[in-house]
Prior knowledge:
Elements: E1 8-10, E2 47-49, E3 52-55, E4 60-62, E5 69-72, E6 86-89, E7 123-127, H1 131-134, H2 156-164, H3 168-180, H4 190-223, E8 226-231, E9 234-239, E10 248-252, E11 260-266, E12 272-276, H5 278-281, E13 286-290, H6 293-296, E14 309-313, E15 324-328, E16 331-335, E17 340-341, E18 346-348, E19 352-359, H7 365-368, H8 379-412, E20 426-427, E21 434-435, H9 441-455, H10 462-480, E22 495-496, E23 508-513, E24 520-531, E25 534-536, E26 552-554, E27 557-561, H11 569-575, H12 581-595, E28 600-605, E29 611-617, H13 621-632, E30 635-641, E31 644-649, E32 652-662, E33 670-676, E34 682-688, H14 690-696, H15 703-718, E35 721-731, H16 733-747, H17 753-764, E36 769-780, H18 784-793, E37 797-801, H19 806-815, E38 824-828, H20 833-857, E39 868-873, H21 874-880, H22 886-893, E40 898-902, H23 906-917, E41 923-928, H24 934-939, E42 942-946, H25 953-956, E43 960-962, H26 968-1006, H27 1018-1028, H28 1030-1039, H29 1045-1050, H30 1056-1059, H31 1066-1090, H32 1098-1120, H33 1126-1147, H34 1157-1162, H35 1165-1192, H36 1196-1210, E44 1217-1218, ...
Parallel strand pairs: 23-37, 23-41, 27-29, 37-40, 38-39, 39-40, 41-42, 42-43
Antiparallel strand pairs: 1-28, 2-3, 3-4, 5-6, 7-14, 8-9, 8-10, 10-19, 11-17, 11-19, 12-13, 12-18, 14-15, 15-16, 20-21, 22-43, 24-25, 24-36, 26-27, 28-29, 30-31, 31-32, 32-33, 33-34, 34-35, 35-36, 44-45
Helix pairs in contact: 2-4, 3-4, 3-9, 4-27, 8-9, 8-26, 10-26, 10-28, 12-13, 15-19, 16-17, 20-22, 26-28, 26-31, 26-32, 27-33, 28-33, 31-32, 31-35, 32-33, 32-35
Amino acid sequence: MVKGSQQQWPLLVPPxxxxxxxxxxxxxxxxxxxxxxxKPYSDSQIxxxxxxxxxxxxHSIQSKSSSTHSIKGASFREGHDLNPVSYGSxxxxxxxxxxxxxxxxxxxxxxxxxxxxxxxxxxxxxxxNDPGRTNQKRFKFAGNSIRxxxxxxxxxxxxxxxxxFHRIAYIYFxxxxxxxxxxxxAVFGREASILPLAMVLFVTAxxxxxxxxxxxxxxxxxxxxxxxxxxxxxxxxxKWKDICVGEVIKVSGNQTLPCDMxxxxxxxxxxxxxxxxxxxxxxxxxxTRYAKQETQMRTPVVGNIGGLLIKCEKPNRNIYxxxxxxxIDGKRVSLGPSNIILRGxxxxxxxxxxGVAVYAGKETKAMLNNAxxxxxxxxxEKRMNKEIIILSIFLVALCTVVSICHGAWLRRHREExxxxxxxxxxxxxxxxxxxxxxxxxxxxxxxxxxxxVIVFQVMIPISLYISVELVxxxxxxxxxxxxxxxxxxTNSRFQCRALxxxxxxxxxxxxxxxxxxxxxxNKMEFQCASVGGTDYDNGKDIxxxxxxxxxxxxxxxxxxxxxxxxxxxxxxxxxxxxxTNEGKHVCDFLVALAACNTIVPLTVEASDPAIKLIEYQxxxxxxxxxxxxxxxxxxxxxxxxxxxxxxxxxxxxQRFNVLGLHEFDSxxxxxxxxIGCPDQTVKVFVKGADTTMFKVIDKSLNLNxxxxxxxxxxxxxxxxxxxxxxxxxxxxxxxxxxxxxSYESASTALMGRANLLRKVANNVENNLRxxxxxxxxxxxxxxxxxxxxxxxxxxxxxxxxxGDKQETAISIGYSSKLLTSKMTQIVxxxxxxxxxxxxxxxxxxxxxxxxxxxxxxxGGHGAGTNQLALIIDGTSLVYILETELEEKLFELASKCTAxxxxxxxxxxxxxxxxxxxNRTDDMTLAIxxxxxxxxxxxxADVGIGISGQEGRQAVMASDFSMGxxxxxxxLLLIHGHWNYQRISYxxxxxxxxxxxxxFVLFWYxxxxxxxxxxAITDWSSVLYSVIYTxxxxxxVGILDKDLGRGTLLKYPxxxxxxxxxxxxxxxxxxxxxLDTMWQSVAAFFIPLAAYWxxxxxxxxxxxxxxxxxxxxxxxHLAMDVIRWYTITHIAIWGSIxxxxxxxxxxxxxxxxxGYWAFFMIAKTKLFWVCLLGIVxxxxxxxxxxxxxxxxxxxxxxxxxxxxxxxxxLREPNAExxxxxxxxxxRSTATATT
Length: 1233
């Protein structure tokens, strides 16, 4: 990581080796012939396995586990007294090929096309420095101009409208507006009927246009940046958008790469370059990339860069994989992920690089991955759509009633239609008598039906959609600004990446969590080691006088490791006794820690100018911890260059030639390095998970040491430590030469390269001498135990899905309070389907027995006192997921308080989430920090990414992101609860306010011969949902709080209201409709009765009705507001005032009907008495019901609100006690004070 303004000097990392080229000897007088090797692997993607996840892009091992493993022997015990178990390996994969959730995966399943041969039809030919030939007409490749914008000036209007009309409600209102344009159906003014839809479309279009303008501006800046391109033998500035595939480009230090380039040469003589991929995947650690030695010597200045042909795979989204071949002078050289640098990366600690563009513009891997998280719809929105369908059916019913009644009225008055206004059958005003405004009985009924739809259109609340969007934006703003979810360690705030599921945060029932980096910090600290069968776990911090142990002086500058670890004095003393057998064994162990890695040593300025700190850069926190441990014991890695490393051993600089490196992969689950030592020997050092390392250890050498180490490993795992096993063996000259030739053949193979390289690694990684094992602590994040306890109290079930070993996972489970000593543990570790079935049946029988015992002890009041914890491994899930056993697993898991899944692969994580989603209506949330959590995050209803140590793959695939697991508590219990309550109320209120107006219009139709004339003016009907009543509901939806933060955190049980759907359900919907009908009766019939015998016109009554309805719905809203703010008062009372003003303005316009009607009726006392009477008559029943429910049948929310407001006044020491709700049925929970 680049440290701000602190200067750093890279200590070089070895580039790939080239067959046939002489390399630096092991020593000056070394007699061992050594060839530089090509890089011994070809990576395609993130591979998950064992206790690690390796990220191929950086040639390092990442601390994460993901693959499945078989666990021999099943344990099925109560309590937490576990038998030791031994592990065997079973291949897992995380490949991109579609596999079933329970699949172990074939050996090839983990490889993408980057591992396979490049067929001619799938290949891209790039002629270096010959863009004309490369981009021939039939091979025309994309230019480097990018476009992230969606619209152009010509396409904005049609495309934006097309996207907006994907909402069915918009199409509905468009049809209504079109119908109103027909003369026969023109109920409203033609302009007025279009206004509501036009305003909604306009607001959304303005928002989309502004967002797209920002994209256009960003694209323009990006496309017009300059790059140095080789033209006629000289580098000239050229705009990025004009760069073509095949052109040679020079990039200087700290510049951004304009396209995907294959490296040809770098400023370092060995071809090493360092890049930072923050813009691509969010990872800030430096990555090493290499130029082939064959092209490194061909500098563009000499003009010797042409004549090269690259045959590479077609563009794809895999940022971690690349396969190509380069033809140089008739010789074919293989290229891999280490030889390509991608668009968006920054060149760091390298003066310059020269490369050839192979992918440009929209075909670059960065642009192909430029996609957001999958779109999700909230549960409330899905439920809202169902209620809208019900309202639509209700609308059709009202229209049918009106049309039928109108038909009957026409039959009754058919003789009067000759002279009746509006319905005269003939027009006698002209000499020739014609039919006039009458289309026959059947057509009149049909027209009335359509006119009814137009008049009652407000039944479907068009403003609800945009109101909900605005409220969600406001809610997101307050979530982002919440300091309780600000992570000071990373200086990062909560991010809301999906605005459409805010309210789902208040209904979560299951939380699926990763362990490493999510519950833990993913900051590894070396704790102990087992070396030669002896356990060294008595480490102490290095004192000031011991600093010389971990320091080395180079050119007058003292180098010290940036971090120190606890040192065991006995192990430290042995490390200095090189001449004893035991001391040599310890030295080999520490050399393995320092050398068997891909760490990049960097120097960092210290406060003392005479001291510089060594910082170990690497994407694997495990590797960093081991390197710092070796340095603290006097084995400091201080330099890494092309082909060799320098380790300071007890004050002496010793050079080790790196002859070959076999990277970690998901099948071997280990990595190895072939080292040429100063004593002219060649050794292979191997480290990896115990599941595979003990298979390649020669146990005949010292069986007692192996058994002791296994015992220590079990002890380390039980403490929650992450473990690695280290082994080595010395290679004879013949063995080395055999490996060398085999590797050269495998690395240059065009077909099956990955399998061949794996076989070469397996051949050399055998008959190892066990050196020892390490124990690394990954500490829990702050507040994790308290967070899990709060979530569990809130009725949320927490499941942990990890790739770690069972003992490690169980230990973390206890320390995080996921598991407790009171829980009865059910452990399922099986290697066959039959044994899985038996264990599941036995577990279900055990649950029934425990339930019966608990039931009898409780006197028949339930079995709530028993708690079960299920612990299951990935191998068992292989035989359970997507089989008939899934149902039994679900039945068992749903009865458990805690579930812990160990050794699970990424797809199995998604399978576990699907297990719950497919069988229940409960909301699920998945949280993780690594790439292997992406499938789980996307599968869950709500996905949360932790912005931690493993890059941002999880964040980029998530709906929300945050810095710490403990932030789940305020996110769910506070914001989730508020969001759910607000949106629920808002939806029901929008239904209520619109239906009130519809019923007032309906009652009027019944008294006007079903003619669909309206007393309420067209513009008032239109402005009702837009101006009169829209703002208050938005303000309340953003700001109102039913309970305070302190109360919600103190009583997590209150979260159960969302889980049970107390604020929005079918019962509340129909109660709201009944309340709406009563209020509409009061609003319509009180003025009708008051003015029955008067001469007041319909327009004046219409003004009274619209004012009454607006006042009624705003008073209704005011009765339900809990927290009043200044803006709330302004919105509610201001809306009523705005309605009066609008009505007065409308009635002053002489070209509109009802001219001056308001002023005529408002000057009478009866008008104001009617308004008051309507409010009282409409609100009193609602007020009485609210008082009765809150005092006689209160729920948890009512009780907590009362305690929050009055509790301290009544009784200073009063406490509110809530019933636990985790196992309650979906009904209102009871609570007592």
